Amino acid sequence: MRKVHVITQKEAVAEEKLTACTAIVIDVFLATSTIAFLLENNFEPIYAVKNSEYAIELSKSQSESHILLGEKKGESLPGFGYPDPGLIRQSDEKQGAIICSTNGTIAIEKASKAKTLFISSLVNGHLIAEQIHLQQDNSSIVLICSGNDDRFSMEDFIGAGQIVEHLMSKGDYDLSDSSKLAREAYKHAEKRSFVDLYECETAHLLKKFNFPDAVEFVLRHHEQVDVVPIFIEGKIINDYQVTVTKKM
């Protein structure tokens, strides 16, 4: 039986312990939701880097068309678009994206040595769970909450619980204590239409920096975005078509 564990913030990740695991990074109200919407809107591949310096350096080396998105501690960065998922618009032609953030992209980098790495949010967590359940291996499943700049994040913990709930609806899994609590948190939040998330720390931060609609936008798209972001060879691509093929 596969084990499922939730790490409540990126700072607690032991990178060397992920090499044989399936990892999932969650940053509900910014990076991972933005990545999901980027893929849905014809931006691929996506490069997630830890800060603006790395983003600019990578941008200079790219010959293909791409956009730059980023923030630092919630503040906009000069020359970067803000990584608010509600600001993403459909690209007429496929182009890449480079994104940096205070929490989510750092968590992705810390999890990059995992055997398999998925990117999840409340908008697509149901499909991530489906893909994990279809895996043909017995690797442990590690759900990584990005957290809020060295602090616990309510929305990421609930996002982890979403995946646990969907996994348990499909089969038997060995849940850690943190996974059990995350699952109950998700079930409680869903029953209440996620009302508590409108008052979470990140929601107030986004309002402070003039992005008051970001939380509403993500919650309105709960399980509505048909992408399965997967990290392969340093970049994030959409694995959803592979999922559909396996289901047929």
From TrEMBL:
PANTHER family: 2-PHOSPHOSULFOLACTATE PHOSPHATASE-RELATED. Its EC number is 3.1.3.71. Transmembrane segments: none annotated. This is Probable 2-phosphosulfolactate phosphatase. It comes from Planococcus halocryophilus. It comes from the Bacteria. InterPro entries: ComB-like, ComB-like_sf. It catalyses: (2R)-O-phospho-3-sulfolactate + H2O = (2R)-3-sulfolactate + phosphate. The lineage of its organism: Bacteria, Bacillati, Bacillota, Bacilli, Bacillales. Keywords: Hydrolase, Magnesium. GO terms for molecular function: 2-phosphosulfolactate phosphatase activity; magnesium ion binding; sulfopyruvate decarboxylase activity. Pfam families: 2-ph_phosp (PF04029).
